[in-house]
């Protein structure tokens, strides 16, 4: 970790100068534009006011740091310490595995075919399922864990000063003291590639490199009368049987922006507005009594997805035939109109 701490500390001190003194901290920018919209825990956890605080005309770096590392089995994490996290879920009545692993390509990017890692890796972060199964009494095996992807937001003026482009990836490596060809380098290259890839028909995509830019993109698509939601897990539990409890609720119309946290040295979210998504609140109760307030997003039009996408393989359905849903991992958010 130490090899990355010094470069980012120096970067922050050099990038933020007196001319930026009037800029609002990220959380105040949110409140200025969305005064009636609470910031979800998925966002507040990575604001890290103890790490980056504005005082006068400078940004002072306090505790914390940034670390990029590769996980087992080809999975990857970007964090500042802590255990690996996500949510691994397996519906017992399915013949094929229905979990999604963090692999070379994101399962939330619908251009890509499933990889062997996504099908077989033990590190899972989401579950694809059919909308018709989203009701009280559905049982599934799940393992909710605390997210390890704790890469924090940079203030927009700092994030904007850092190259975010495959054409300038060498500059990124230099800034974060990352060796070209290393696992860390491949993580960064993959994230940049996914952000630059053309979206499917009907998808408006954008990689937000700061909280302010996420707010701007999402409100430009939905307006400012919005809710921002994330999955809430009380505490980490072992693998166990969960039951969908009473209270499944559709919480939006057929529009929304989903933002998936990416693997990167600082917080980057791949946000996309797609055709006719539906968002649900799904209460879950574990066999040991643990409760999870899960958020599920259902895609009603999958006709433009890659036919070899993971969802079609694990659910044995074809593109464009039935709505496909997935739970949001704890560090992802969905924006919906109130």
Q: Could you characterize what this model shows?
A:
This protein is of the alpha+beta class and 338 residues long. The protein has a domain of 165 residues. Helix content is 22%, strand content 28%. It contains 9 helices and 19 strands. The strands form 4 sheets. Strands 5, 6, 7, 8, 11, 12, 13, 16, 17 and 18 form a 10-stranded antiparallel sheet that branches. Strand 14 and strand 15 form a beta hairpin. The longest helix is centred in the N-terminal third of the chain and has 14 residues. The N terminus is likely disordered.
Order of helices and strands: HHHEEEEEEHEEHHHEHEEEEEEEEHEE
Counting helices, strands and paired strands, the structural category is: alpha+beta
Shape descriptor reads: globular
**Mean pLDDT rating:** 74
Report the helical percentage: 10-25%
Total DSSP helices: 9
Structure summary, number of beta strands: 19
Instruction: State which percent range the strand residues make up.
Output: 25-35%
Largest sheet: 10 strands, antiparallel
Radius of gyration: 19 Å
Distance between the termini: 42 Å
**Residue runs with pLDDT of under 50 for 5 or more positions:** 1-21, 50-104, 120-126
Give a quick rundown of the structure:
The chain is an alpha+beta fold and 338 residues long.
Descriptive terms for the model:
338 residues, alpha+beta, 9 helices, BURP
In terms of topology, how is this protein built?
Elements: H1 2-15, H2 26-33, H3 41-44, E1 52-55, E2 58-61, E3 67-70, E4 76-79, E5 86-90, E6 99-101, H4 116-120, E7 124-130, E8 139-145, H5 156-159, H6 169-175, H7 183-196, E9 204-208, H8 211-222, E10 226-229, E11 232-233, E12 240-244, E13 249-250, E14 257-261, E15 269-273, E16 277-286, E17 291-299, H9 310-315, E18 324-327, E19 333-337
Antiparallel strand pairs: 1-2, 3-4, 5-8, 6-7, 7-18, 8-12, 9-15, 10-19, 11-17, 12-16, 13-16, 14-15, 14-19, 16-17, 17-18
